[in-house]
Design a protein that fits this description.
CATH architecture: Orthogonal Bundle
Radius of gyration: 15 Å
Number of strands: 8
Strand order of the largest sheet: 1-2-3-4-5
Number of domains: 1
Strand content: 25-35%
Mean pLDDT: 84
Length: 128
């Protein structure tokens, strides 16, 4: 049922909002759907478990598709504190997310690396 509604709405970015709060409840790109109120992620209609931090990073990237976030920015926003020295923690979480959502994590489609800068979510994905 959900997929037929999404298909009827067309391709591209689909965000569904709670009319009372005007906060998005669902973000949909390609075959990925993130349900914010339930903190759930689905890919190809299959639920994918994410850690708290993984979910927060993916949500950050998905709510601003195409925008490049540096490792410092991701750390500052997600951990809510200034960067303290080790970027490997951000890179490790990005790697974990890719392992869970990408068909080929070595050639990511969803979370793209911008060399020397950071990461972005590919907003050029249509709805299936």
């Amino acid at each position: 049922m959900i997929e037929s509604v999404l298909a009827a709405l067309g391709t591209g970015r689909n965000i569904y909002c709670d009319e009372n709060n005007i906060k998005p409840l669902k973000i949909h790109y390609g075959d990925i759907v993130i349900l914010l109120d339930k903190r759930e992620l689905f890919r190809k209609q299959e639920k994918i478990d994410l850690s708290f931090i993984e979910f927060e990073i993916l949500h950050l990237l998905m709510r601003s598709p195409g925008r490049v976030f540096s490792k410092e920015q991701i750390y500052d926003i997600i951990w809510n504190e200034p960067y303290s020295g080790d970027y490997n923690v951000v890179m490790r979480h990005i790697c974990n997310i890719r392992e869970k959502i990408e068909d080929d994590p070595g050639h990511p489609v969803y979370i793209q690396t911008v060399r020397g800068v950071g990461y972005r979510f590919n907003g050029n994905l249509g709805s299936e």
